[in-house]
Amino acid sequence: MILIADGGSTKTTWCLVDGDGARSFFHTEGYNPEFISTAGIVASLRQNLPATLVPAAIAEVNYYGASVVSPLQVATVAEAMRTVFSQAQVFVGHDLLAAARALLGRQPGFAAILGTGTNSCVYDGERIAHNVDSLGYFLGDEGSGAFLGKALLSDYLRGQMPPELEASFHRTYGLERDAIFDRLYNQPFPNRFIASFAKFAADHYQASYCQQLVAESFDAFFRKIISKYPAYQTHTFNCVGSVGYHFRDALAQAATAHGMAVGKIICAPIDDLVSYHLAAAR
């Protein structure tokens, strides 16, 4: 049996493939090595794996995760996987490689992620050939849930939301300034907290304020990141992630406005990623 995982900052989606090729899915929390240690990952997995899954029966683990870039970050996650799945051959890669493999298979092209965070690349059919750094949620991540969430929070705290939306925001979350700043600066996973507010824009997308906020976010994504790729307009724009998918019409409009034809926009990569690995195993 093999396990394939798509690990975001907020949630990890797993697929267990048995010897007959049957697929079963489950979820755990996200394991971003910027925010969690090897011991933390091990503890979470042991608590959250399905009771019917026998870790020692897993022969192969392919884990793709957010911020799994440097050798130290890879080692943090890989050691946890080898601890829990002691009999498995373990591969740990970046979630951007997962996106490229899910969107493009073994064909070269352009792939992006728009979820809690942002990432993008030119893919040569095997590996990531070029990447413009998104700089993370502190300095960049234009187009992401965190970028949208920051815009919403700052407008709310400054009293710059339309009054009816400000009232709805307060009813929905009931957060005062001190509570917001405590979550941002004193509690774990501030990126998840910020990105969670993107749902408000989706739930109130009929409001012109939210439509403009989303349009400006995607315009910044193309201006600040995508347009920095050489000859980017020669590529088809392909994207995976909940933010890109739920606002896909606005995203397609932004891509077209910046001279890119639109290819695949999907919510999650796991199904196509599993197909990629099963094809590779044949």
From TrEMBL:
Domain of life assignment: Bacteria
Sorted UniProt keywords: Kinase, Transferase
List the SUPFAM superfamilies.
Actin-like ATPase domain
The record's section on InterPro entries has:
ATPase_NBD, Euk-type_GlcNAc_Kinase
Which is an annotated GO molecular function term of this record?
kinase activity
Q: What PANTHER family would the database entry show?
A: N-ACETYL-D-GLUCOSAMINE KINASE (PTHR43190:SF3)
- The entry's protein name is N-acetylglucosamine kinase
